[in-house]
Amino acid sequence: MKPIRIALYQPDIPGNTGTILRLAACLGLGVDLIEPAGFDVSDRNLKRAGMDYLAMAALTRHVNFERFDEGLRLENRRLILASTKAALPYTAFDFQPGDTLLFGRESAGVPENVHERADYRVLIPMVEGQRSINLAVSVAMIVGEALRQTGGFASVFSP
């Protein structure tokens, strides 16, 4: 069974990325970082947020979206985009093992060509008038639901 993966499109905030890498390390998930990032990956804030978990994180860096997309297609993975422009709540979506969950840049999301490439788009419903939830929190919410649905937590907690 292919594990769920997390993909970050050109992240802006090193603290969010560090927190996501820590989450991924603790859950045994891989993270794809699609460059360019808005910070140097040796950034002190990234290290502070990720603590000593960064060394355990399965991080794959991609020079651009096209290279990331090539790998995704070779591995036959679905691309699920989290977007405030989506109509389908993430809790109503049927996640599958091997899905790659894509999260956009904190400041701007993803460009239209990335939206078009996504196989599915999901959103986190929010109170009207609110713009967005912190990226690291959004990742945790959606990844948690994907793992719950696919039985992915079993591999984390097996003896």
Beta-strand proportion: 15-25%
Report the major sheet. 7 strands, parallel
Secondary-structure-derived class = alpha/beta
Total of DSSP H or I helical runs spanning 4+ residues: 6
Q: Would you identify the regions where 5 or more consecutive residues have pLDDT less than 50?
A: none
Fourth CATH level, the homologous superfamily = SPOUT methyltransferase, trefoil knot domain
- Approximate shape: globular
Q: Spatial order of the strands in the main sheet?
A: 3-2-1-6-4-7-5
In total, the number of domains comes to 1
CATH level 3 topology: Alpha/beta knot
Q: Separation of termini?
A: 18 Å
Rg, please? Answer: 15 Å
Question: Order of SSEs, N→C?
Answer: EHEHEHEEEHEHH
CATH class: Alpha Beta
Average per-residue pLDDT, rounded, comes to 89
Q: Which bin fits the share of residues in helices?
A: 25-40%
Provide the CATH architecture: 3-Layer(aba) Sandwich
Number of strands: 7
From the structure above, extract its key features.
single chain; about 160 residues; alpha/beta; Alpha/beta knot; 6 helices; 7 strands
Note the topology:
Elements: E1 5-9, H1 14-27, E2 30-34, H2 44-50, E3 58-62, H3 65-74, E4 79-82, E5 88-89, E6 100-103, H4 112-117, E7 120-123, H5 135-150, H6 152-157
Parallel strand pairs: 1-2, 1-6, 2-3, 4-6, 4-7, 5-7
Helix pairs in contact: 1-2, 1-5
